[in-house]
């Protein structure tokens, strides 16, 4: 039995009476190739089941057409959505994605990042848990393209795609105030820029409305010794011991909010009548909870898409690229966990 030779780029070019360069540029979706030519090439690619020779392409271009992604975890959905946005943007351009998780451990993040660089990824996309910029300054000094997503690192000049976390804190807290809450607490996250921004937005809104603002109204769910839900439950239990008790709470993320809501219900209190709750992230399951959760949608898929496009652009830029800071718009998604005033419209 004879073995069929693999289809080569020049076979497609010969079939279509095009140059190999034209076919290659069509497969890269280059703007200087007409739509008609691209469609002809793609049709022949499908007919012949053509698979590009990645090793040959790497030798010819000096690129591996792969991007590395390092995130703290995929357990609670936000970073899974970010990854989906990245893949959706990379796939049409012929790039692949290599993924690693750091388990929110700074040293493990360094090792996973080095492993990706050893695989010669063309660029890195990271949601970092580092507390200082030295490691990434070293990566940048090597000439590696890098994009931060979600959180920033103080003192590091780096490309970033995320949200305005101060705005998130403001719109969540303003919504609770608008629902009649007059003693609003906050369950804050770990020592990262997103948590600091949301805390700032929460505090500035309380000052704006002349509402009580004190350290006793802020509980931290930062320890990594248990699940996010358990950390949220413990923080809410701390707030429930206050007298007078809070009548509203803005929670750093949806996973913490689930634990907080569990603590409220376990104490025999009603959501939102006794305590209104707002989370952040708009995880896919938040509308399925016993009390559907009001939350701030961060546009996670869009964050991933823009981060991927930024990373690919950095790969091909010859000149030293300027630092870009891109913010994705956020929106409040109102559900039953905070809805004390029926006139407020829900966004689904």
Automatic annotation (TrEMBL):
<keyword id="KW-0238">DNA-binding</keyword>
<dbReference type="Pfam" id="PF00356">
    <property type="entry name" value="LacI"/>
</dbReference>
<dbReference type="InterPro" id="IPR028082">
    <property type="entry name" value="Peripla_BP_I"/>
</dbReference>
<keyword id="KW-0804">Transcription</keyword>
<dbReference type="InterPro" id="IPR010982">
    <property type="entry name" value="Lambda_DNA-bd_dom_sf"/>
</dbReference>
<feature type="domain" description="HTH lacI-type">
    <location>
        <begin position="7"/>
        <end position="61"/>
    </location>
</feature>
<dbReference type="GO" id="GO:0000976">
    <property type="term" value="F:transcription cis-regulatory region binding"/>
</dbReference>
<dbReference type="InterPro" id="IPR000843">
    <property type="entry name" value="HTH_LacI"/>
</dbReference>
<dbReference type="Pfam" id="PF13377">
    <property type="entry name" value="Peripla_BP_3"/>
</dbReference>
<dbReference type="InterPro" id="IPR046335">
    <property type="entry name" value="LacI/GalR-like_sensor"/>
</dbReference>
<dbReference type="GO" id="GO:0003700">
    <property type="term" value="F:DNA-binding transcription factor activity"/>
</dbReference>
<keyword id="KW-0805">Transcription regulation</keyword>
<protein>
    <submittedName>
        <fullName>LacI family DNA-binding transcriptional regulator</fullName>
    </submittedName>
</protein>
């Amino acid at each position: 039995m004879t073995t069929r030779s693999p289809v080569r780029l020049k076979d497609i070019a010969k079939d279509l009476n095009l140059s190999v360069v034209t076919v290659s540029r069509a497969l890269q979706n280059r703007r200087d190739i007409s739509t008609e030519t691209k469609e002809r090439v793609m049709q022949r690619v499908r007919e012949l089941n053509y698979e590009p020779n990645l090793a040959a392409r790497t030798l010819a271009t000096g690129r591996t057409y792969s991007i590395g992604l390092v995130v703290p975890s995929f357990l609670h959905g936000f970073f899974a959505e970010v990854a989906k946005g990245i893949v959706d943007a990379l796939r049409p351009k012929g790039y692949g994605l290599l993924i690693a998780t750091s388990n929110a451990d700074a040293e493990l993040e360094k090792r996973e990042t080095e492993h990706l660089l050893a695989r010669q990824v063309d660029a890195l996309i990271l949601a970092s848990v580092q507390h200082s910029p030295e490691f990434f300054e070293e990566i940048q000094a090597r000439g590696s393209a890098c994009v931060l997503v979600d959180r920033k690192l103080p003192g590091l000049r780096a490309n970033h795609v995320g949200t305005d976390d101060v705005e998130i804190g403001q719109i969540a807290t303003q919504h609770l105030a608008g629902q009649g809450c007059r003693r609003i607490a906050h369950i804050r996250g770990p020592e990262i820029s997103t948590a600091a921004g949301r805390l700032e937005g929460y505090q500035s809104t309380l000052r704006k409305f002349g509402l009580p603002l004190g350290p006793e109204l802020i509980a931290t769910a930062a320890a990594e010794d248990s699940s996010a839900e358990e950390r949220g439950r413990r923080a809410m239990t701390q707030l429930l011991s206050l007298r007078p008790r809070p009548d509203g709470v803005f929670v750093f993320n949806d996973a913490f909010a689930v634990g907080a809501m569990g603590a409220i219900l376990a104490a025999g209190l009603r959501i939102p009548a006794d305590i209104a709750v707002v989370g952040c992230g708009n995880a896919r399951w938040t509308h399925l909870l016993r009390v559907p959760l009001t939350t701030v949608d961060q546009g996670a898929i869009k964050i991933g898409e823009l981060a991927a496009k930024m990373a690919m652009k950095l790969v091909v830029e010859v000149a030293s690229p300027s630092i870009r800071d891109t913010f994705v718009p956020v929106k409040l998604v109102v559900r039953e966990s905070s809805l004390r005033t029926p006139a407020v419209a829900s966004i689904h």
